[in-house]
């Protein structure tokens, strides 16, 4: 692993999402609603890096994922959340377990933006201040284990990752927060 490195990751992601929205209504009452969901979908990531040492990889990555909900408790009034679209960008740090060991561990932190996807009715009702189309900003972190079946220098790898994230927005007097825990499984092409 020397010089400029490029890797493409294709993954299937399963995520547990928790969304909380709270605001003060026109009647001066405080409202708070929670929604939980399980979502599954594809993720595409590109990582550009360098190897300052034989067993270390430093990179920057960008990723996009779209995950439709497969189940949700649907407790946000007048709002049907069908899934989410999320992108992230940030640094990564990878370690090999030895010069000829086909395993790598990669740690990453990222700035993330998440959009819920769905539909709303009765827009403007006092209990409908959920910003469905508004982007929620936040961060995420994760770890990924890569296994190269053809040996340490193989450009093909299988990977398993775990990530968590928090996003939120304060649009129109509404405080909206989301948390995510996700498991990803996929293939990687490149070093």
What would you say this structure looks like, in words?
There is one protein chain. The chain is 0% helix and 74% strand. With 191 residues, the chain is mainly β. It has one domain (4-21, 31-86, 108-140, 151-190). Strands 1-2-3-4-5-6-7-8 form an 8-stranded antiparallel β-barrel. The termini are close together.
SSE inventory with pairings:
Elements: E1 4-24, E2 30-53, E3 56-72, E4 79-96, E5 103-120, E6 136-147, E7 156-169, E8 174-190
Antiparallel strand pairs: 1-2, 1-8, 2-3, 3-4, 4-5, 5-6, 6-7, 7-8
Helix content: under 10%
How many alpha or pi helices?
0
Uncertain segments: none
| Total beta strand runs | 8
Question: Would you list the SSEs in sequence order as H and E?
Answer: EEEEEEEE
Strand proportion, as a percent range, falls in: over 45%
- Assign the structural class, choosing from mainly alpha, mainly beta, alpha/beta, alpha+beta, or little secondary structure: mainly beta
> What is the 3D form?
elongated
**Terminal CA distance:** 7 Å
Radius of gyration: 19 Å
Mean pLDDT comes to: 87
Strand order of the largest sheet: 1-2-3-4-5-6-7-8
State the domain count.
Answer: 1
> What's the story with the biggest beta sheet?
8 strands, antiparallel, barrel
